[in-house]
Amino acid sequence: MTSPPAFSLRPPGLVLPRIMGHRGAKALAPENTLASLKAAAAAGVTWVEFDVMLTSDGQPVLFHDDTLKRTTGVAGAMAETPLAVVQDLDASHGFGRRYGRRAEAGFRGRADCRVPSLEQTVACLLDLGLTPNVEIKSSPGLAKETAEVTLTRLLGLWPGDRLPPLISSFERESLAAASRVAPQWPRGFLAEKLPADWRDAMAALDCASLHLYWRRTRKADVQAAKAAGYAVAVYTVNGLRAGRRLLDKGVDCLITDRPDRLLAAL
Q: Which CATH fold topology does 19-265 show?
């Protein structure tokens, strides 16, 4: 396999899509599953965000929570459960709590709704023509290890002639590890609210983009980040009015559970 191409982080910098699917397309199919990636592609997006955690035997899988219960209905912690068990779990549990039992019934028991490995995910992404925003979502105490294992594995899976993945995290330790393992891939600095030291932190981690919680995103913050050469994304935007306001503030990318709705109107 060829080595990933060098990637210019700042400027001209990272070019993000206007609309990006969140956890695949969380409102259209169970989050962080192959079904959700397929739903995002069917909606028309070219980029998707998803979360990666490690199983007890150190295998990267798509999952958001430290515990298994919310999406699989099974008690236990991800960090205490091996891949062989995790991959048999149906991640459509809980979809009905938010989107209705009838909606959940359409996904229950499907093979593409089981918790996917990183290898299965990459194969699906390549088949669908999607570029990933890989959020390192580690269990407590595993920020560095999760990033190192995930990036090392991903370097061996992602073709060198494809647009490189964006690696994002709330954990600075994860971003630092990502910069060591895959310095040529862009990194996204995640924060619920812009921290006072964002300039120094993003420069030290050589980040390409800033990702903020949409309700706490101020126009002045967007302007400052863009003036510094960073792309700006916000999460998780599902309303059209909110989306328009954020784009008017200068936000580059809306990360959404409803890519179908936002793509059609924005």
A: TIM Barrel (3.20.20)
